[in-house]
């Protein structure tokens, strides 16, 4: 079954960009503080993101060297805080300042998160969850969803749903 891991940066309005030149950083853009609903097993969480973010267009490496994966974009949480509230009013707040890179590997999309990121698996993935990561983590679009949403690597993974569960 396909799963859809969605970096929170995508959910808060950072689009998918593919550059055609050298990497170019856009100026930080304020985020819309509108609440969004994220899925946990058996309940939902309200997420409000504040701050600014920026997108870096990145040159598709495969045009220069076909042996390298195609990288689509890098997004940066320049100065972002996310507040998550569970069904019993438990609340956690995290700074987000990481980057998410997406590469098209030989058989799957490969995601690499560096820094502090929030990764959300929607209910349609078959294994909903919200994970706060610090450091470097990697996952694939169609890979396993457990444990920890299929996130691997030396970074630290925190199960936010476990913290906010009723």
If you had to describe this structure to a student in words, what would you say it looks like?
- The radius of gyration is 16 Å and the shape is globular.
- It starts with 5 loop residues before the first strand and ends with a helix.
- It is mostly beta strands and 166 residues long.
- The protein has one domain.
- 5% of the residues lie in helices and 50% in strands.
Helix content: under 10%
Global shape: globular
From the alpha carbons, calculate the radius of gyration and give it in angstroms.
16 Å
The total of beta strands comes to 11
Distance between the termini: 28 Å
Low-confidence stretches: 1-24
User: How large is the share of residues in beta strands?
Assistant: over 45%
Largest sheet: 11 strands, antiparallel
Global mean pLDDT? 73
Number of helices: 2
The figure for the number of domains is 1
